[in-house]
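Fold this sequence, please.
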Amino acid sequence: MTGSDALTPQVSPFTETCYRHPNVPTGVHCTRCERPICPDCMITAPVGHQCPECVSEAQRAFKASGAGPQEIRSMSSGTPITIGLIVLLVAGYALQVATGSPVSAGFQAGGTITDAGFAHPLLIGVQGEYYRLITAIFLHAGVLHLAMNAYGLYLFGGFVERTYGRVQLVALFFVTGFLASVTSYALSSVDSGGSLGASGAVFGLGGVFIAYAYRRRNTQYGRAMFRSAMTWLLINAVFSFSVEGIDWRAHAGGVAAGFIAGYLLEVESEKYSRRTVAIGVLTGMVVVGVATTLWKTNQIQQVFASLALN
């Protein structure tokens, strides 16, 4: 054995190795081409990892499809807004801990940031505290809950920020998060325990990713993205419905709102610019959310009025 051989990792013939670095064993595969890749070759995607060649091919495909320079440049740009939103989530949880209640035992406990901000049907419908439909996004039931939502936001938020831009990321995060809270409010009974967490907004951004992949399902890259997106959705659907305490209503509302928004944001119009279309779509979705909220509130108040008469 030579000196150079002694420095070369010995790889078993039964061990998978990176297709770009044959001496590096790995168990990770590119979600698009399914070739094995090592940590140095992994490029984080909204679902899984991709190899450098597939990412380069995707960029060429975008150019060939007529994507604008801004969209092409955005694929390699940073994601400061995504990081900023994650910081806001962490700050919200820090306030929970600072006030002595990382997880609220109930809205009657009083005095904590959790009690002041989580979404409970009675507090929204009877007390008219509609702000809870937004503040609940920034509260979490524990460190694991926060970490899972932060990671999901890192993946899908980064994708949306690079693809659609920073302003649209903020708008989509809050609009889909709001509609997720509205869905939970509309479908929950008045004696439910309430909800909190950014998962509805994260699922909303995931819905945008699904719509993006669905529109490109006729290309190899789009089909790979769509398969990955549907796998993610199926796994989370099973998890949402099988684990007690998870607000599946918010998840369903978020992903549906995100898909609708993501699909309509790419509608081509000769009369209106994409910016105008985006404003119209997101404004219309907010109006629907407000109308649904008022409808649910009216239902709750009618129930309490009939009880008072009896």
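Residues 1-9, 65-76, 104-109 have pLDDT under 50 and may be disordered. The first strand starts at residue 43 and ends at 44.
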